[in-house]
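Example 3.2
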Amino acid sequence: MVNLGGGCFLVLTRINDGTTFRQFVFDPSIDSNWHDIGSTNFTTGSANNEAPPWLSFINYQGVGIVACYYTRRDTTPPQLNVIFGLAKDLLTDSSKWLSGIINIQNYPSGYTRSGYQSFYHPINQFKGIGCCFECSSSYSYPKIVFTPESDMVNILNTLMP
């Protein structure tokens, strides 16, 4: 769940037997209920194999942006990805996630249950610092990762043309 400001919240949940997340929003200007606004427009992986997403809110020069970090366990090797969307658009439309998914890192071969990431965006910067876990059959260990800096200019141009 992520706080979008103004009492509004956005939640993404895994769909059993699905390959996307389900998006729910709470907007007190509409009513006091959660609303299911549909499946996201990006693929999260094979059915029943997704790790939970991590959502971060970035207030970039007064523009609310949501970053969704998630692990694709169905790829070889598994991938840690991020996708962005404008908060105002995501409140009403689950298909408004940016079309470009950014790969942050590939997990080493043999790490089949990787994921469970968390991210922090210092002072509302686009560049996030995160922690994820690489898990083999015998152990798990944390790994520090960063949102790639080189893609941020293109993301800003796409989100705010």
